[in-house]
Design goal:
Layout (H helix, E strand, L loop, with lengths): L1 H11 L4 H16 L5 H18 L7 H12 L7 H16 L3 H4 L4 H11 L5 H18 L7 H12 L4 E4 L2 H9 L13 E4 L9 E5 H20 L1 H4 L3 H11 L5 H21 L8 H17 L3 H21 L3 H7 L2 H13 L11 H6 L17 H24 L8 H9 L7 H18 L7 H10 L6 H18 L7 H12 L6 H20 L8 H11 L9 H12 L5 H4 L3 H21 L13 H17 L1 H8 L3 H11 L7
Antiparallel strand pairs: 1-3, 2-3
Helix pairs in contact: 1-3, 2-3, 3-5, 4-5, 5-7, 5-8, 7-8, 8-11, 9-11, 11-14, 13-14, 14-15, 14-16, 15-16, 15-18, 16-20, 18-20, 20-22, 22-24, 23-24, 24-25, 24-26, 25-26, 25-27, 26-27, 26-28, 28-31, 30-31, 30-32, 30-33, 31-32
Amino acid sequence: MMYAMDSWLEQLDDEVAPYVEPLLQISYIALDSPDARPQVKEMLLSACASAAAAAGQAMHPHLPSLLPRLERCLVATDDKHLRPRARALEVLGMLVSARGGKDAMAPHISAAMAAADSGFELDYGELREYGHGMYAEVAEALCESFAPYLPACLDKALASLRLDDGVLYDSDEEEHERAARGGEGSDVDDEDDDLSDSDGDGRGNNNYSIFSGVVEEKAAACKAIASYAHHCPDAFKGHIGQFLDPMGGMADYMHEMVRSQAHHALARMAQCALKAAPPPSTEAFPVVDACLNATQRAAAEDDDRDAVGAAMESAAEVVKSVAAAAGGGIKHIADAGHLKGLSDHCLAILEGRAPCQEGDDTEQWHDDGVNGQGGPGDEEEEEDEEAELGQIVLEGVAELLPALAAVGGAEFAPHFQPHFAALMKRTHTNRPEGQRSVSYATIVEVIRAIGPAASAVIPLALPGCCAEFTAESAGLRRNAAYCAGVMVEVGGSIVSGARRDVAAALLPLLSAEETDRGVRDNAAGAAVRVLSAENFASARDASIAPATLAAALAALPIAEDFEEAASAYGGLAGMFVDPGCAQTLAQWAPATARLFVYVVADERDKASRGWPGRDGASKYVKAETIARIVAAFDAMCAADAQCAAVAEEMTIGQMSAFAEARAGNIPQP
């Protein structure tokens, strides 16, 4: 039950606040009882860590009662109490890194770091694992102020990366003899499982036993290095060379958990190097090359889809960073063969030819038609666990391919043709819904990156995308709505004949019958994109605009997917100040003005009470969009008496929010 509660708490974000005190009261009973089982304490502390990450400031009133109990856990040395001690470190880390934690925990950070340090003095892998985790959380909170702690933390990370992984046995008999002796010499807890590989794999008849505690410790060390490089790059930059070779080795490590984290760490190290020595300096290029080479090795050789997906996502981040740095960095990665190599690996994955996809769907692949029309021998693909695993690596492509397209621009359009054909095959209805969703998202993000040069493929993809508006999965409906809106927006005159049909198809997703708020948010953004496309052509069309705009306004404000705020609110702002739209849209100007008042005031209220979520990054309207809203509202009030009446009805708080925004005071997380 506690595992279920732990998972549930992780999803609640700001909604967790009412549950904090009951959870802590239950936890205190166990933590205060000398008879409570260590396993119960461990599970409750794990739930407390999830609550701390989600609740942020809601945990702070409870610190006087919680911290002394954590301190008792952190001085335990009996073997049976070491797992709860490790979990107590996790709670401390989340308290520091959660919203408002840096200030609330400031008096306790030094003691927390000392508590984590002391765990490394004990011969217990889980304490080292959670110690690295706590260091990473504190680095996230302190940023460059973490510098005094960094050298010692790096030494510990390097020691963990260099740990012996296990023992190579000459034969099954020798392994059995060691098991009979009780496995003396092991550095890990007896409860840790060994992960054994006895299939030969180039090792003859030997068996290689991997201590799982070591695997998790190495993975935690890699994750900590990624945090240091990302959150305190100035302090970390001088240590990049020390970790480049060890982290490259971890990217080829025998366990996928470590490989995945190593790819992320290499990406953060590359970004740190680029920040420290941006092109035209070539100093960062060896680190960039190490990351991208590791990704290409993973795509060509790794048989684990999680690890390959992580590698692709990491490469995408590095390609974006190189492009942002300019100064010849893109020429370097092109000359080094990274751009073509990564593009080829993306195509191999989309066509199901990568080693990590062996046995996935090769047979069906050759039967599918180019436009997603299956052959007579096709069978419906079951959406089982294997299909979900297959989606993971496609999500990596969904990150990397658009990054490559953005670098290539219009010149990438002809190179996208085979990728597009492969993606269209994966949108067929005999594919799992998750796979179809990722495929449409990849197509659309590449189209956005390339721009009008990619318009020719839009009429081929748009009909199938709109057909997914009725999909059973809310996630697919949500993504399809977004994708259709972007295709209409980018397609311009090429899809002008389809705009009316797309707008009509969006109406059910905008209605109250659609209960998923994320779907409605994306449908609202798509509707505004349709109305705004080709210089507001549909907004001026009396056969499209009335029903579409009315439905979009009824679905707003944004409730869940705030990434749609810029398109929904920004599009409305542009629409209502466009002279050509005034006559067609006049009826809805007051409702739009009221929406703008609500949004500006609500964002100011969020700033005063703290944005939702651990860092608030996913649930706020960006400052530039707020500025557009305010400017449009002022113009609407000057031109329309009904809108001016809306302004007169504003409360003092709403007027204050607008005044602050006009002055450029728009707080952001």
